[in-house]
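Hello Y.,

Per our agreement to keep a running log of every chain we model this quarter, I'm adding this entry. I've kept the format consistent with earlier entries: sequence first, then predicted structure.
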Amino acid sequence: METVWKKYSDKDLKKVFDFAEGYKEFISVNKTERECTEYAVKTAKEHGYVDLNEFEKSGKKLKAGDKVYVTNRGKNFAAFLIGEKPLSEGIRLLGAHIDSPRLDLKQHPVYEDTDMAFGKTHYYGGIKKYQWVTLPMALHGVVCLKDGSKVKVVIGEDPSDPVVGITDLLIHLAKDQLAKTSREALEGEQLNITLGSIPLTSNDEKETELVKKNVLKFFKDKYGFEEEDFMSAEFEVVPAGPARDYGLDRSMVMGYGQDDRVCAYTSLMSLMDLEKTDRTAAVLLVDKEEVGSIGATGMQSRFFDGILVELMTLEGNYSEFAMRKLYGNSDMLSNDVSAGYDPNFPQVMEKNNSAYLGMGMTMNKYVGSGGKGGSNDANPEYIARIRHILEDEGIAYQTAELGRVDAGGGGTIAYILANYNMNVVDCGVAVLSMHSPWEVTSKADIYEAYKAYHAFLKNI
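Predicted structure for the entry above:
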């Protein structure tokens, strides 16, 4: 196996780099699940997709060529290009998650200590806490007011914006801190973001917490919400700034949230570029994968099942029997990232079964941990069909496991869709520094993944 860069012509290279520009813009702007969902809706509309609820009101039946999309609570997105065959003959589904590790503001976040204002956070997903300090951070959020209105907040992305961040202990006084393990060096309750240090002007000398009050005044003056409104808000603290070209040859992308938005973007674009299909083609973007796919917006929710019931009803062929046939006849790629081989840390990888940057899309027969715990272990018959498509289309791909046996492990949404009795295998992009504030991917792998997902929707 050799790097895919060697096979590219000058024309191919232009396609790879052009595609990466769109991807970099996507992850630079869309750093929360809500933002990704809004982007997906906007993109779908531009490609002729209509809201399924509006389609239902029209009284029409679904027919081949119809394009519909659905959202769920602002954090899930699903789009369907209806095929010529009935839904009971199965769908081709691409699934990815749009949540990423981050810090969330607590419901009572703002406090003052020694004439400085801070924000309390609770980290989300699996992070190394020490990686998230002394970095410029941005606030992305939505505040839901009691009157039903919503206020969108983004602070720290425009070059003229201020940024926030988390301080760390100076090396001169860190003897005890450095004696701890990296897991213990910072506690979760120490991940407090600095918000300000100027007190509110007051004529009352006895008034207290003036710095905190000045920060709250900023939110009130600029966005129109009060301290109590944090109770019904979602604020995500994420790395500030755009994705960048990585490497002197610009062959890679460094950016926040590439797990798993690199697969979400390529999945979405592959469906948008599909004009017709014999079997219904679909993309599904979900939330909460990083914390177990739980809740109303996670893959374990019944929302996707409900969408399929609605589609079959609009088609005019709904029955429990037809639904079971749909599930059993469906094929899915669970598009999630894989751990890239890092020569700086070879001890946790097994070279024969690792994903390498620049070697194309990565296919994982299974992930999980230990004895494949928590994993979907894809059928070899299904993998053979995927291989046939990829090789016929000249798409570069590789196979991998998530590190050495017993070195750790992880999971995806694959097993949940397999519970529907669908054919499912994990396919994604290799990532370096996964779950860190700034992850790294190869532009070649991103483009090959896009081509693979498009070929899957067309051919299987």
